[in-house]
Amino acid sequence: MLVSEREKLLEVRNLKKYFPVKGGLLQRTIGQVKAVDDVSFDIYKGETLGIVGESGSGKSTLGRTILRLLDPTEGDIIFQGDNISTLANRKMRPYRKDMQMVFQDPFASLNPRMSVGEIIEEPMVVQNLLTKAERKEKVIDLLEKVGLTSEARTKYPHEFSGGQRQRIGIARALTMNPKFIIGDEPVSALDVSVQSQVLNLMEDLQDEFNLTYLFIAHDLGVVKHISDRVGVMYLGKMAEIGPKTKIYNNPLHPYTQALLSAVPVPNVERKREKIKLQGELPSPSNPPQGCVFHTRCPEAHERCRVEIPELVHQGEEQYVACHLYTKEQ
Ligand code: SF4
Predict the structure, then answer these.
(1) Which of 282, 317, 207 shows the shortest CA–CA distance to 56?
(2) What's residue 4's pLDDT?
(3) 8 alpha carbon to ligand 1 midpoint, in Å?
(4) Atom of ligand 1 nearest to the CA of 304
């Protein structure tokens, strides 16, 4: 069954998140950082959609905007059929329990003055759910689900390793029985040896709790490990999105091709020639006209400098935003 034949959990339509740039004596708005610029995609129930891109590509801002931790500048976020893009805080509350985030730095995201039990229990206390004894039971159950023992409940975050702290962060994200979890670089701060343990845990929990993930990372190997489909972002735009096998075996966008060409492959026969991108990532406060990648693209041609490429369907569930695949109007 194709992923796109499943029921949609989330639809993102023409989402934009711009941050004002202030300047001058009066700190007036003199420009805008286009962190997320007209991004559209769907997430299907039970899948893991990985989002990759360099730092500055807008992937973390995308995640935070979808969860409404940031207000979108424009566009729609439709969660289970409900448009949540402009809901006031109070009206967002019922959706918040269904949508959780696991952060990159488990140390910074866990309150060091609270015991692990209090950290995991807190969302239930805030929502006034269950009795004290039931909450304690749930905390112990969650700790066991993430591979920790019940003794962890009375300890504090600093008493744990990075990997264990991330397990605590995951347990907290699960407290309210969410449907959707965004992982914002959840294993980037961990030792390589611990990364796959946490990724495997996330996969096991996905099956057990029927979770849907949006997994944001800069590491292509990590994203390949966990994702069903992969989206590649460049300078606030979605360059390409499709099934993991298509993106990794047959990348269409010149940026995806360059990113993947830099990853070492064990199989000598399948080695790709390394594509060296020219120049630096342009500033999102002054993105290039036309295709945002044209200043670095080895395939850039005249049309790329003036016309923004739309994301177009290129075979089974694969979409690419590049003029090499679109007809001139
Ligand atoms: Fe390169 Fe042009 Fe395609 Fe952009 S639209 S990726 S510049 S070929």
Answers:
(1) 282
(2) 75
(3) 30
(4) 2
Q: Return the pLDDT at 102.
A: 95
Q: Show the beta-strand stretches assigned E in 45-98.
A: 48-52, 74-79, 82-83
Residue 5 burial (CB count, 10 A)? 8
In tens, the pLDDT along 8-25 reads 999 999 999 999 998 888
| Ligand 1 pocket check for 277: Cβ under 6 Å | no
CA distance 41 to 288: 23
What parts of the chain have a pLDDT lower than 50?
none
320 Cβ closer than 6 Å to some ligand 1 atom: no
Residue found by looking up tokens 């304690």 in the block: 136
Single pTM value for the model? 0.94
Are 95 and 82 contacting, i.e. CB atoms less than 8 angstroms apart? yes
Please state, in angstroms and rounded to a whole number, the distance separating the CA atoms of residues 252 and 73.
30
Q: In the chain, pLDDT over 70 holds for what percent of residues?
A: 97
Task: State the chain's maximal CA–CA distance in angstroms.
Answer: 68
SS3 helix, strand, coil % of the chain, rounded to 5?
35, 25, 40
Helical spans, DSSP H, in 50-128: 59-66, 89-96, 106-109, 116-126
